[in-house]
Amino acid sequence: MKRLSIIKQPVLSVLNVHLVDYPSPSNINYFWSFGSIAGICLIVQIATGIFLAMHYTPHVDLAFLSVEHIMRDVEGGWFLRYMHANGASMFFIVVYIHMFRGLYYGSYASPRELLWCIGVVILLLMIITAFIGYVLPWGQMSFWGATVITSLASAIPVVGDSIVTWLWGGFSVDNATLNRFFSLHYLLPFVIVGASVIHLAALHQYGSNNPLGTNSTVDKVGLYPYFYVKDLVAWVAFAIFFSVFIYFYPNVLGHPDNYIPANPMSTPAHIVPEWYFLWVYAILRSIPNKLAGVAAIALVFISLLALPFINTSPIRSSNFRPFHKKFFWLIVADTLLLSWIGQQPVEDPYILVGQCASVFFFIYFLIMVPFLGRFENYLIHYKTR
Amino acid sequence: MLRQLLSRAAPGWKLGAATLAAGTAGLAAAAGTALADEAEHGLHAPSYPWPHDGFFSSYDHRSIRRGYQVYTQVCATCHSMDLIHYRDLVGVCYTEEEAKEMALNIEVTDGPNDEGEMFERPGKLSDKLPAPYMNEEHARYANGGAYPPDLSLITKARHDGQNYVFSLLLGYREPPAGITVREGLYYNPYFPGGAIAMPKMLNDGGVEYDDGTPATEAQQAKDVVTFLSWAAEPEMDERKLMGTKWIAVLSLVFLTTVYYKRWKWAPLKSRRVIVDVVN
Amino acid sequence: MGKVPIRLREVVYTLSPFQQSVMNGLWKDLPHKAAHHMHNLRDAVLFCVAPIAGIAYYCADFKEKEKLHHRY
């Protein structure tokens, strides 16, 4: 095919190789669109965030008012803010589906270990960015969420309290905290951009996995036009889903307490993090000891990072792994359950359910992943022998 | 063997469908158990059919205007609305002339002037609605230690805000047998804890509407909640209209992209690949 | 022996653009497709929806019993 020579120019040729002519497996399904949708989410968050920052004031006395100023007085301000606030939720929905897709189809398996690990790092960066972003409107939930979560560092022996003071920039969550959170909230998205470029580079080393989990090089077609038109369908569907939230249910994913200005003198009845943190929060709360709870959260991310290295299955796709397929659905159920438990008060029966769900979470990642691979492998050879 | 594998490769969308179903089940369960501790969190308000609740419904602007009258004649003696200015009422429930006229009736401290002195002047469109107290301490002192919250965002700042405020305003009754309420507090099952410092404020005929609507207690509650909903989300009418247009257009774009995709993919989907050994 | 890679030839046969239908495949044999998808969803229902529904039911039941227990 004859191409315009402009594609052969420096820089443009790199873009052409990776974003236009890039060969992709012909059988990848719509779940492979969530990667590019996540990229769109990141761009949307950065774009709306830059414009919001033009009107926002990071000061304890003015932050809440400046957000309401954006909502009421800035032309199209409510649109920008609702898009940014709901965009964070969309980003997490998309990334969670993206990760579960990787889990189901074994996209993390060799040779794509690094790809998965960079993805986990991006998730961590996203969690930090979203958390400090939620503090910026300086509502009740912002303030108390920041207080509770930063206080977790005090569980660390010896240096814990010093770390908390260092994080706060003082002896309580105050103006210094808000200022540094704003600064970091502006910085970290660009770190995520960098990590995403590395994620993409790692992907293009071996190319995409595919729903069969077989050798992906068998039948490849160009990203343009085939996956451009396919992703377009997914992008527009996502835009409709996103729009329903922005225009019709803009506050349904938030907490009403965050429309009350932060007040250090009055603690809300229940301090609940944003919905996308609830599963981790439930694991944290399942353990009565603070330090052990923090260690459990660390273990969550260690398990995610270790996943490609402890996986023993030579087969990638769960379509051909009948036992893992069932456990995959159980871990999906487990994550949803944890998210539900995370918003319940700490009382019976939620404590027991939360503890069982937390234990299952680790059983899946640390025991079932290595075990099922061997077990299914054994069955295959048992049958053929 | 390979064909068998291929036919068993499930199309991806089922992942999503099942996740959605599971999520819905979880949500339904959450709704069931959220009602558990009513004494601590207050009785859960029933759901009322607000005329502006629908996808394509806008505010009842006559009701906003009446609600504003309820606010100024009843609520404003204790509650501020710091985020609402007279200019915000223009084109919503008052004309510019009416709003200017109302603003003229208040005294605003402005300044400093050329001599460095603060001075009093009549209100302008750009002024906030007047606050009843100078600061929180003043408000608490005047209300026996209770702080009447600012009402600008109240329907967004409470769980199920509109129904909650409506139920609360009409929820005053005698405490049931066995429950005593401390002096200066009033029994209201919708308030968390059941005892609220605000007395029952709405009474039949307690407000005079300028459009002649009979000012029953329930009418006042409905109007003031409509006004407060507007105050919390003044952009709602514009938002829903924009959303309707945008989603309608996107739906057409979606159908187009589906066709575009299938048109581009048709040759790929209908091809036959023969791989043969070269002898 | 056996180390020499087998030389393969790939031939792709395609239909004329006039013989291709763009949208028909989407709704052709829809009941069968729906049944097929339902069959594939079996594991998801059994191992994702059912546990959540079961545990949610258990929690609701627990709360209800607790309430009744406190009442008398």
Automatic annotation (TrEMBL), chain A:
Swiss-Prot/TrEMBL GO biological process terms: mitochondrial electron transport, ubiquinol to cytochrome c
Single Gene Ontology MF annotation: quinol-cytochrome-c reductase activity
One GO term describing the cellular component: mitochondrial inner membrane
Cofactor note: Binds 2 heme groups non-covalently.
Domain of life: Eukaryota
Cytochrome b/b6 C-terminal region profile domain segment(s): 213-383
Alphabetical keyword list: Electron transport, Heme, Iron, Membrane, Metal-binding, Mitochondrion, Mitochondrion inner membrane, Respiratory chain, Transmembrane, Transmembrane helix, Transport
Amino-acid positions noted as binding heme b b566 in the UniProt annotation, renumbered to this chain: 98, 199
Membrane topology value: Multi-pass membrane protein
Cofactor: heme; heme b
Alphabetical list of Pfam families matching this protein: Cytochrom_B_C (PF00032), Cytochrome_B (PF00033)
Alphabetical list of SUPFAM superfamilies matching this protein: a domain/subunit of cytochrome bc1 complex (Ubiquinol-cytochrome c reductase), Transmembrane di-heme cytochromes
Intracellular or extracellular location(s): Mitochondrion inner membrane
Binding site for a ubiquinone: 204
InterPro entries given in the database record: Cyt_b/b6_C, Cyt_b/b6_C_sf, Cyt_b/b6_N, Cytb/b6-like_sf, Cytochrome_b, Cytochrome_b_C_euk/bac, Cytochrome_b_N_euk/bac, Di-haem_cyt_TM
Chief place of localization: mitochondrion
Domain Cytochrome b/b6 N-terminal region profile positions: 1-212
Residues at which heme b b562 binds: 84, 185
Segments passing through the bilayer: 30-56, 82-102, 114-136, 142-169, 181-202, 232-250, 271-288, 294-315, 327-343, 349-373
Biological role stated in the UniProt entry: Component of the ubiquinol-cytochrome c reductase complex (complex III or cytochrome b-c1 complex) that is part of the mitochondrial respiratory chain. The b-c1 complex mediates electron transfer from ubiquinol to cytochrome c. Contributes to the generation of a proton gradient across the mitochondrial membrane that is then used for ATP synthesis.
PANTHER family with a match to the protein in the record: CYTOCHROME B
Family note: Belongs to the cytochrome b family.
Record-given protein name: Cytochrome b
Protein's organism: Chlorella sorokiniana (Freshwater green alga)
UniProtKB/TrEMBL annotation, chain B:
Residues holding heme c: 75, 78-79, 198
Family annotation (PANTHER family): CYTOCHROME C1, CYTOCHROME C1, HEME PROTEIN, MITOCHONDRIAL
Domain Cytochrome c residues, every copy: 62-169
Alphabetical UniProt keywords: Electron transport, Heme, Iron, Membrane, Metal-binding, Mitochondrion, Mitochondrion inner membrane, Respiratory chain, Transmembrane, Transmembrane helix, Transport
Subcellular location(s) of the protein: Mitochondrion inner membrane
Cofactor-binding details, from the entry: Binds 1 heme c group covalently per subunit.
GO cellular component: mitochondrial inner membrane
One GO term of the biological process aspect: mitochondrial electron transport, ubiquinol to cytochrome c
Protein family according to the UniProt entry: Belongs to the cytochrome c family.
Listed Gene3D superfamilies: Cytochrome c-like domain (1.10.760.10), Cytochrome c1, transmembrane anchor, C-terminal (1.20.5.100)
Source organism, top-level taxon: Eukaryota
Required cofactor names: heme c
An example molecular function term from Gene Ontology annotations: metal ion binding
UniProt name for this protein: Cytochrome c1-heme mitochondrial
Automatic annotation (TrEMBL), chain C:
Compartment(s) of residence: Mitochondrion inner membrane
Keywords from the named record: Electron transport, Membrane, Mitochondrion, Mitochondrion inner membrane, Respiratory chain, Transmembrane, Transmembrane helix, Transport
SUPFAM superfamilies xref list: Ubiquinone-binding protein QP-C of cytochrome bc1 complex (Ubiquinol-cytochrome c reductase)
Cellular component annotations (GO), alphabetically ordered: mitochondrial inner membrane; respiratory chain complex III
One GO BP annotation of this record: mitochondrial electron transport, ubiquinol to cytochrome c
Topology relative to the membrane: Single-pass membrane protein
Transmembrane helix as UniProt keyword: yes
Superkingdom of the source species: Eukaryota
Family membership: Belongs to the UQCRQ/QCR8 family.
Protein name from the UniProt record: Cytochrome b-c1 complex subunit 8
Taxonomic lineage of the native organism: Eukaryota, Viridiplantae, Chlorophyta, core chlorophytes, Trebouxiophyceae
